[in-house]
Please model this.
Amino acid sequence: MRQGRATPRKEAVNGNHSGSKRRFALTVSSTFLLVQELSMADVAFVVTTLAVFALVALVAKGVAKL
Model:
């Protein structure tokens, strides 16, 4: 017994695990959001690239008619 403590503390060595479960859930949800955000950025990039190539093709056709 330490410093006048009447009963010794009985705690788990690693503490309560409920915090780690919450952290895991937050990590999974944030990872999912990050993947979703990156996939939306990829879709926007592909759509923009296709639009630019279509515009270049239209300009090339217009120049060829001259």
